[in-house]
Amino acid sequence: MRTRCVALTLALWAVPLLARDPSRVAPASAPSSAAVAPEGEPGQRLEVTGVVYAADGRTPVAGASVYVYQTDARGYYRPDNAMGNRDPRLMALLRTDASGRYAFTTIRPGSYPGTRVPQHIHYEVRAEGHGTRIFEIVFDDDPLLTEEIRTNAARPGSVYSLKRIEARPSGVGLVVQDVLVGSS
Question: What is the pLDDT of residues 13-72, one digit of tens each?
Fold first, then answer.
């Protein structure tokens, strides 16, 4: 329990520092869709789509920066470093389109090797005049997901977003992740 509390404290302390990293902001010319994991990357294929909305939950935000990153199916951010999240191999920098939409293809990430950390995809979303939202998608069928995380994910503004992977005939799972950015 103490280890989990220390890890959570360090993670929450680091979030504001990471949020200021300019390499985590998409250039103005970034596309609204991309491949996070290239074709042939081992793992369950996923398509993640969504809309970034203003605080009212109805107004799409055009031009929002969406930075996503994750581990590979083995739980490694880099082939030689499971914890190399400062320079992840599987990542994308996106800008939402005129309707606030974004999309990416990827694979289902693995849990960090030797841990009980659930599989997750990191998000850092920021929009001028709307602030920044940092969170991670976790998957509802992940056996490492605790009741504590499930309960936390149900709270508005949580650092977790609990998602179900929708099966499709193509075999590529669909995840819909809309994002609400608060006013700054």
Answer: 444 444 446 689 999 999 999 999 999 999 999 999 999 999 999 999 999 999 999 999
Which one-letter DSSP state was computed for residue 112?
A: P
Q: What CATH number does residue 30 fall under?
A: 2.60.130.10
Could you say which DSSP state residue 166 is in?
A: B
List the beta strands (DSSP E) in the chain.
33-35, 45-53, 65-70, 90-95, 101-107, 120-127, 131-139, 160-163, 173-176, 179-180
Residue 142 lies in a domain: yes
Question: Taking the model in full, what pTM does it have?
Answer: 0.87
- How many domains does the chain fold into? 1
Note whether 10 and 79 are within 8 A (CB).
no
Q: Tell whether 11 is covered by a domain.
A: no
